[in-house]
Every structure is written in structure tokens, then in C-alpha cells.
Write a structure and sequence with these properties.
single chain; mainly alpha; 3 strands
Length: 312
Amino acid sequence: MAPVGRRAVLAALASNLGVAATKLVGFVITGSASMLAETVHSIADSGNQALLLLGSKRAETSPSHEHPFGRGRERYFWAFIVGLVLFGLGGGFSMYEGVRKLAAGTHELSTPGFALALIAVAAAIEGFSFRTGIQEANKIRPERQGWMTFLRTTRNPEVTVVLLEDGAAMVGLGLAFCGITASWMTGDPRWDGIASVAIGAVLCLVAAFLTIEMKSLLIGETVPTLVALDLKRQLNAIEGIDRVLNMRTEHLGPDQVLVCVKVALRGPADLERVIEVIDECERVVHAVVPTTLTCYIEPDEFDVGRINDNWT
């Protein structure tokens, strides 16, 4: 089964290529700085999708001697590159182009009405991609969870990137529309340059958010707190376990989790009983966290001095 988010990435790639061509035609005809900024933005977005697909494909590689836990973090790495390089460069170029046009102060827009029509076409195409991204996100977004909370807590990089870039694209198109309209109505071309700078600022903000989130995932994040609490509760309920002494979980990729648990056994137990308890613990772990790739269970004795409450 394809990872959640790949459909959104493919839809975004197709739409971004079409939008980039549309915006490029608008820039060539009108000479609009904001249209050029949006063209570069869409070209960068197309590169984003290619890198995300590369990461998703490489992450499917089976574990090996060199990478015993697989290459699941490839998806986080390439999403990090997307934020650091493509979004950053796109935002930096847009701001540079806007400042350059503002400094020149003489660039004229030709056929601005045509440019506005092209922006409407681009918005329709971009809206389709955005809608697909929302549909994919809703497959993994907890019910009643806000979108900002979801973006900060989801472990799926493809969905995060597509939602952020499509959202930024819709905002950018709105800014380009406003900049071109203001320049057309007032006869002052500086509004177009201001719109280009604003588009660049939006892209830089998105780049900062995405880079910070992907860095955290690359370093390693636990499973969501509610899942960890449920797992601890069910482990504590297993017959023969006195208590969970400590627990560590870490995402090795969006769909790959490492779980390490130390449990105190109740009363004396022979080797056969210890094995039964460990098997039951593993069954519970895989039931509560279906994405578990590797699970380690360590039986021990209860000792107040050795309990680590930072178990998640």
C-alpha cells in the first residue's frame, strides 16, 4: 500500500507544473515582478514534490546490515531539504526580485487584465491540489484536532509539505492578484514589487516552520502522548506485570516506530512464564502501535531507585 500522502504529492506535482507554465506565460506577457516570483515559487514546488517522492521511495528499502532499522528517516531528510533549500531559495529570490523592481521604480505592466485571468486559472489548479492534500491529511488527522496542532504533531512529512506549500501558493496568488490590481488601478508599479516582497516573506516563514519541524523529526520524536499513555495502561494490565518501570518510543519514520519497555514482574517467575509475559507485551505493543517496526521488552525487578518516570 502506498504511504499516506503520496497521492497528494503526485497531485501537487502535476498541478505545480501546470501552474508554473501558466505563471511563466503571465510574466513573459506582462513583465510583472509578482508573476515572476510566483513562477519561481511553482518551479520550486515542483522540485519539492520530486524530492518527496525520492525520499518516499528510498524509505521503502528493506533493513540491511548497514541500516538495521531501515531507511524510514529518508522521508524526513528530504522534507528537511525541501524546507531549507527550495522554500528558502524561492522566498529569497522573490524578495530580491521585488526589492529590485522597487529600486528601479520604472517597470510597467502590460495587459494586467490578462495576468489577473491567468492568476484565476492558476488558483483553480492550485485549489485542486490543496483539496487533495486536505483529503489525505484527514485520513490521519484525529477528529476535532485543529490544523495548526496537526501540522505540529503529525509524523507524516509529505502531508505537511503539501499542505504548507499549497497554502502558501494560494496566499501568494492572492498577493500577486492584489499587487497587480493595485498597480493597474493606481498606475503605480511599486505595488507589484511590494507584492513580490510579501510573497517572498510568506515563503520564508513557511520554510522556517517546515525546517524546524523536520529537524525535530530527524532527531527523533516519540509517538503521540495519548498513544503512549494508552500503551502504558495496557501493559500495566497484563497479568504477571507489577508495573512499567520505563518506556521509550521513537519514530524511525512516519510508519516505523521503535518501542523499548522495561517492566517489573509480579512475584517469582520461571523462564517459561517470563517468555509468556514478554510475548504478551509484544502483542499489546503491536496492537496499540500498529506501525511498530521493532520492539524490545526487558523484564526486571521493582526498585524505587531505578524507576525513570520520563517513560514516553
